Each structure stands twice: as C-alpha cells, then as structure tokens.
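FIELD: query
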Amino acid sequence: MDEDAVILTAYFGEQHYPGAGSRDDALVGLFARRSVTASVSLRGIEGYGPLDEGAAGRGLPVARDTPLTVVAVDARSRIDAVIDDLARIARPKLVTLERARLLSRPIEPIAVGEMPWEATRLTIFCGRGDRIYQIPAFEEACELLYRRGVAGATVLSGVDGTAEGRRRRSQFLRRGDAPLMVAAVGDGAQIAPLLPELGGLFRHPLMTIAKVQLCKRDGQIISKPETLPADATESAGLQPRAKLTVYTSEAARINGQPAHREFIRLLRSAGVSSATVQRGNWGFHGEHAPHGDRLAQLSRHVPVVTTVIDRMDRIDVAFDVIDKLTPDRGLVIAETVLTPQPARAPSDQGA
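FIELD: result
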C-alpha cells in the first residue's frame, strides 16, 4: 500500500497529567482508542522549550524538563480527527505536522526524485521483538542500508506506542515488543530499491518516505536551510515552522563536553525557541559500520539526534550555531513543518 499521510509529532516535558498517568501515556492512549496506524513515545536526554511563544528570543526564562516526544503517522483525515483531543488531553507544548508517503504490506519499489540539495528520509516503525534468525530486525535493516551506501540510520527505542492501531509498550526487564523507529537519511535512488527487501525483515512493515533538504554532511555545507512559506492552500489555520535535525554520536566531544550538550547550551543562549536530544541505541553514519549498545561495553558509542524547531525567520540563527559546532562530522537536514493552533494550554509549565 502506498498512500499520502501525515506525521504528527508532539513535544512536551515529563509531567504527570492530573488524575491520570504521564502525558505521553495519555496521548498514546488516545491514539490507541482512535486506532491510529502507528505511534512511538520517546524519552529524550536533554532539551528545553519556551514557557510561551518567543520567550527565549525575548530573554525570558525557558522551562527545563525531561523532554518527551510522541510521533504518530496515519492518513490526514485520521490525524486531523485527533488534533483537538490531543491538545485537550495531553496538552503538548508544540505539535508539528509533516507530509509523507505511507508504505505498508505489500511494499514495492517506488520512484523518488530529488534535486541536488535534497535527500530522502526513510522512517521504519517496528518492534524490538522482530527477529531474523534470532538477530534483531532493526540491526539487519541498518546493515542492509549501510552495505548499499545510504548516508546514515539511527534506531530510536520507544517506551510506548501503537502498531496497526493496537497498543504496545515496554515493561521493566521485558522490552520484547517495545516500539522502535529506524530513521535513515540518504539518496532516494539508493533507498527506493531497498524498500521491498527492508519490508521483508519485519512482521508488519510500516514505513514513511519524505523529502528533506540536505544542509551539511561531514563538515561540508550542501545548502543553507530554505525558508519558503508553506502552500497557502495547505496552511489554513496552521503556522509554518523550520525544523533542523542533526545526527551525531554520543562519543563526539566539543571542549571536553558531549557535543549535544554544547548544541543545547549555545542554541539556548542564541535565543532559539526549542531543542530536544534523543539517544539512539543502534545505527551508523557514513563509513562507520553499524554499532550501538551492548551489555559488555565499557563506554557508550551510540547515535544522538538533536531536533531544533523555530520560526521560519530565525532558522538561520539555529543553523549558524550548528554549523560552527559541526566542522568535520555529522549530518544536518532541514524541513518545513506546520503547527496547528492552539498547540498548547497556557497554564502548562513543561517544555
């Protein structure tokens, strides 16, 4: 199946929802009740967000909290149907919407056209329990993408989510079918032919394909982020935002500190509205073979993903910060996302 879809991403801090559980629990519960095709709840390791729109830019305090990110994908009509309830039930600080192509069984090769400054982002929604001869399917997927020359891939492990409209979540010491996201970025001509083979690795393959702007790779600037407005026919009631995604390693250091901490510190100092960091548990970049967490490891060498979102007219500020901090490594992509209004309740205090 190949159809148009929308990726919804909700960002907030780890606070408890009055009378219920955590906010991500409330949100994933909503997605399960509405039979949303797939969703993943991810806990971040670093981040911040403004208490109100533009607070950081005006020098006002910003909230610091453990960042939570919930990603969901489905047809536009189904996503539109949950947005109002989402704001009421989970009260996220920020919600973004992105167009994508949704692929599910049977998955066939597709044509992906790109301009020289574009790349293709492939996202695979799967479960930790998917296996190929006792090897985790996500590891096999990364190995296949690596062998075929794709620029990079990062596996993000969720704590809760839905698959085919049904809920699945990790449990303490039992992560068997915890939801996962495999996010790969590369040349569409390399990714498109791999889709059927990748689909065969998973019990219930579900993927999205989207074009992104390739800004920087291994220290080389490919193009600076575009700030084109969203299509007027698609943005009624929505506000365009710029999103930068930076793929690095937890082992990378700047001035003796983990690179992602320097990203957060300097982005915040520059008045950028919000940034979130998530730690992957497996992945690869460029010529470095797939690797990740192992029980016997003495140190961690895992992928890290930093997501930055700000107004379209301020994206150059964010990119300048990231550019200076990635002189010879990392992958930076940009895209335009839309934010439904209202996206949050004014009484919240999380980020």
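FIELD: remark
The first helix runs from residue 23 to 33.
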